[in-house]
Amino acid sequence: MKKYVLIVFIFLLSIFVAKAQLAEIYNEENLDFDRDYRDNYLADYNYFSDLEFVITSGGDKLHMDTSTTSQTLRGININGKNFAFDFIGCDAWERYCSFRINGVPTKKTFDPNYHPDKQTSFRFDEDYSLLIETVNYASVGTFDIIDIIIDGSVSSCGDSICGEGETCSSCTQDCGCSSGYICESEQCVEEIICGDNICDTNENCCMDCGCGSGYECISNSCVLEYECISDSDCNNDEACVDNECEIVLLPPEENDTATLDSTDLTISDITPTEQDKVEITVAPSSIEEEKEDKVIETQSDVPEPPPKEESTVIQKIIAWFFSLFG
Questions:
Q1: Beta 109-110 vs 104-105: how paired, if at all?
Q2: Region 56-75: what's the mean pLDDT?
Q3: Contact criterion met (CB below 8 Å) for 321 and 281
Q4: What integer pLDDT is reported at residue 227 of this predicted model?
Q5: Is a pLDDT exceeding 90 seen at residue 81?
């Protein structure tokens, strides 16, 4: 039992020592990568406990022959720190290579001979960075020889090298964007030009992409082509009629109308107001004219009714007429 415990202790100690001998990558805590994958990767390689770490200084080269597996993993010791360089792969079309240094991926490290404006180095130590010098492409889509420079002069803005930590935003001199691209969020992205008659993806430009049905582009803004295309474009008391908002006149409700039955009313039931009262005057001239017409028409000697009696009848008629209006 004691022997078994001792073996386990020695095994764990060897892992601890091997893990401790690997240096931490510069700015590792702020790098974006899968840390669980890194831990499993290192455990699979036993933390490179059996890898030879060659003392190296700035300016030295690492020569990798990708046709030989043993030549794709190199260990260096620089200023007492151990770094294991593991080749992941290259893209012969885009001209970049990727590596893992102590399990941390370098992501795309571009060949400076083809892409000097992109990231061509990876800073793995406070004073040193990885820089691809040459990639020997044996044929289209393949490669076999890679020379890596351990650059002791950490890139600084203005040295014409787009190094680790430099972006198109932080260092335009080294990482400026190519023609047709602009710098956004520290990355070079294709420039979108409003008004070039090309509707690019996610472009907010109605001059290039047009507007929806019923809208037109005015000063690069989509506005209603008409006053309205549906009732929702009008006020609450309006409706859209022939693309114009018009006030809606609602029909009266049933309780707002009243019907009168003439059989239920008598003259005495109607009481006119002061505004409804009408003054009636009888012009004397009209009466005289009527009398003369009768005399001429009849040509008779029938005596005229006594003026007093005629006056009495007219007065009665007038009185009766006024009684109708109270």
A1: unpaired
A2: 76
A3: no
A4: 74
A5: yes
Backbone torsions φ then ψ of 244, nearest 5 degrees: -135, 145
Domain boundary among 97, 130, 154: 154
Phi, psi of 156 (to 5 degrees): -130, 155
Hey, what are 308's tokens?
């007093």
Per DSSP, the three-state class of 264 is helix
Q: Is residue 39 part of a domain?
A: yes
Amino acid at 54: V
Query: How much is the pLDDT for 318?
Result: 77
∠ at Cα 37 (31, 43), nearest 5°?
A: 115
User: Is residue 260 a part of any domain in this protein?
Assistant: no
Same domain, 144 and 218: no
Strand partners, 186: none
pLDDT of residue 107: 83
Domain count, the chain: 2
- Which among 67, 68, 163, 61 has a CA at the least distance from the CA of 106? 163
Domain membership of residue 207 as a residue range:
192-250
Q: What is the pTM of this model?
A: 0.44
Pair 135, 221 in one domain: no
pLDDT exceeds 80 at position 15: no
| Residue 58 domain-assigned (yes or no) | yes
- Amino acid identity for residue 294 in this structure: K
Domain boundary among 250, 269, 288: 250
